[in-house]
Design goal:
This protein has 128 residues and is α+β, with helices and mostly antiparallel strands. The protein has one domain: Pleckstrin-homology domain (PH domain)/Phosphotyrosine-binding domain (PTB) (PH-domain like). Helices cover 18% and strands 36% of the residues. The strands form 2 sheets. It has a 4-stranded antiparallel β-sheet, with no helix packed on it. A 3-stranded antiparallel β-sheet has the order 5-6-7.
Amino acid sequence: MANILWHDRKRHFGLPISFTKYSMSEDRLFVETGLLNLSQDEVRLYRILDLQLKRSLGQRIFGVGSIIVSSSDKSLGTFEIRNIKNSANVKEMLSVQVEQQRRANRVVGREFMSSDQDLDDDFDGDMQ
């Protein structure tokens, strides 16, 4: 089993009364859901493209927050780690681990830019 660096449950009103569990190892993020029918998804950390922290007023009152994770993983894609304690610290820890895994796996993040102009395929300088 992987060395777990962090784990928590989805919380309701600040209490861990959910069957959704989150955990992070050195190289993977796990999302486990269900009571009778269990489902466990994982995403390799180097496949995470972007992280976003959201904390509504209600979440701030109960001391929780949510992290929106955008990944290039086929099964998970963009997903949310909902209502967890210490969400800002977890987001920062996750960000550090993602960068470490990108360096370790020699993965280069590429930003794709779109343009309203179409470039000519033969690159002769003529724009149409």
